[in-house]
Design brief:
Blueprint (H helix, E strand, L loop, with lengths): L66
């Protein structure tokens, strides 16, 4: 009998595994603040420049149910 995995589980029981966490936006606020992860997994600070265009297209991040 096959068992379904819950969303936060995976088949790998030993070692590290990769996971992708997705959050969607229901409604855009007047001001959107996006915190960037500035540390790597070994807790060393990431010093690279973060660049982005002046206009951010947020359509792919919007929840289509709303």
């Amino acid at each position: 009998i096959a068992q379904e995995m819950e969303e936060n589980q995976n088949e790998q029981k030993d070692g590290n595994s990769c996971a992708i966490r997705t959050q969607l936006i229901n409604k855009l606020p007047a001001v959107l603040i996006i915190p960037f992860k500035r540390y790597s997994n070994d807790l060393s600070k990431l010093r690279g420049h973060v660049s982005f265009k002046e206009i951010l297209h947020l359509g792919p991040f919007m929840d289509p149910r709303f």
